[in-house]
Amino acid sequence: MIKIIKHSVISDFKAFTDNKLIYTHTDNDRFSEFLSSLYRFLDISYPKFFKMDMLSKLGFLATELCVAQTEFSKTENKINTAIYLLSNASSLDTDINYQKTLNPEAYFPSPKVFVYTLPNIVIGEIAIKHKIFGENTCFICQEFPDKTVFDYIYQSFLETDIKNAIVLWADYINGNGKAYAFLIERETSSNIDKDDFNEKTINFLIFNK
Amino acid sequence: MSCIYQISHNIVSSLGFNSKENYNAVVNNISGLKIYPENSMNIPEAFCASVIDNTRFEDISKQVSNLSDYNFFDKLCIYSAYEALQKTDIDPADPSCLFILSTTKGNIDLLENHSLEQNIDNSLFLWHSANIIGKYFNNPNKPIVVSNACISGVSAQIVAKRLLNFKKFNYVVVIGADLVSRFVVSGFQSFKALSPELCLPFDAERKGLNIGEAAATIIYGIDETCENLENDTIILDAGTITNDANHISGPSRTAEGLTLAINKCLENSGNIKPDFISAHGTATPYNDDMEALAFTRCKLENTPAFSLKGYFGHTLGAAGLLETIISSMALKNNMVIKSAGYSRCGVDNPVNIISKNQSLKAYSFIKTISGFGGCNAAILIKKLVK
């Protein structure tokens, strides 16, 4: 019932779209540098990117890779588009950065850091960029894919008027991150050649197993 | 048509350790909010919050075996689920039972004494808390964690409903919890979102919100035909989640997202006209104005409405569950609850905020909620009438 239109991977200082290497970073030193240079490589003009925390930057770029040059990206207001975010470490990296501002000797909590201590801010950033008004839910899971979350996504397509969705795994901790993004769509006769969205296909597409 | 219905519930808060204690406090107009002066919890500015009485909780939770070694957050969740389960004949160790945890920050208080440079302790990972809770009940399934900012508790109920409709589980135990921590209080203060006094939802003098600590559990089940259920059973009839696609921390000026969520939710429940609204009503100037605008746009401006924040504060990941429970109990008792802290209308679009407990023959209500990240949600709860 649900087809994968396109997918992207950001992992080990490399970026892929539909398993094709799009960009690699020669200086495998700092993940933040890698994300900034990937942003420049993709030639997106979106200054808000530089205000985001690492998790949001990662999720944002994986989504950009995944929706580039699709029919989806040409639609104006996306009322029936959903975003499902999955993550293991949630916002823990930013949580630690925020906690550092609470040192009694140098107490200076910042709202700009605090707002990113919620993982679903990643969803908010993507929704703003792509004008997505539909359903959005953030799940914290040990691993991707998570069977029960996938059952939930399937059931959501079954019982609501969702037309398409971005399913995003974004995880950043200890200076390293990984993201997988999928643009999925309710099946219509015109795209029967596409892959089904289920755990088996995902495992094959991403992990080659 | 199958029915997704409430089997049991629990609330642990500053107002009590089960749903009934909490409900009784609310109808007797007792608030759990207290003012904490400057330098309380090592926070320079004064704040007002609703905090669980730790000594009493430790005492009460002794009734539950082997709880002493758990972190406070995990212990609260386990206690809440345990008390809710105790009133049922559900076996939580059965594979047909699923646990869902709704939280924004879990054990975040542990960061206070944690190294900020070294490897992060497992207890800080939200999935780890969920695993610990599931394990306590010997549940064989991998639990689900929903962390959708302030709407988590309503999101989690929508997840429960759909997973029951998926027909793999017969019971879903939805637990929502968050603590009043230095982390969260300082953060909301930095946003200038907190009132140092008792919060006043929808009132002209409102200055901001108060943070609350709570754990709340609802156990949902599915009945294929609804025929085996008693009259007046509480049904989760419909639920919708939307995004404003406008701002990551500010409510939408047009209330577009919440309006869409309410309209879609009512449409999905066969255009029911709800008898009352259990609002989010955080008491920040922007949220309450946005919400009142959404109610007006949805032609619900005359529907009786209240916020429970004046009793419990904003209980974050627990809010959606706690407020659904209290409102469901009010629905069962044919009553609309006084919106604590309200005396004079302070929103641009006047809505019908209730300033006194009222009897009302009620069949359904809508629960609305909004949060950071631009998310909004609405659920329609109704009584089964045969």
3D structure, described in words:
The complex is a heterodimer of chains A (209) and B (386). With 209 residues, chain A is of the alpha+beta class. Chain A has a single domain (2-207), classed as 3-Layer(aba) Sandwich (Peroxisomal Thiolase, Chain A, domain 1), CATH 3.40.47.10. Chain A is built from eight helices and eight strands; from the N terminus they run E-E-E-H-H-H-E-H-H-H-E-H-E-E-E-H. In chain A, strands 1, 2, 3, 4, 5, 6, 7 and 8 form an eight-stranded mixed sheet that branches. The longest helix of chain A has 14 residues, at 54-67. With 386 residues, chain B is an alpha/beta fold. Chain B folds into two domains: 3-223, 3-Layer(aba) Sandwich (Peroxisomal Thiolase, Chain A, domain 1); 236-383, Thiolase/Chalcone synthase (Peroxisomal Thiolase, Chain A, domain 1, 3-Layer(aba) Sandwich). In chain B, 28% of the residues lie in helices and 22% in strands. Chain B is built from ten helices and 15 strands. In chain B, the strands form four sheets. A five-stranded mixed sheet of chain B has the order 1-8-6-4-5, sandwiched between helices. In chain B, strands 9-15-14-10-11 form a five-stranded mixed sheet. In chain B, helix 5 packs across helix 10 and helix 7 packs across helix 8. The chains are: A alpha+beta (209), B alpha/beta (386).
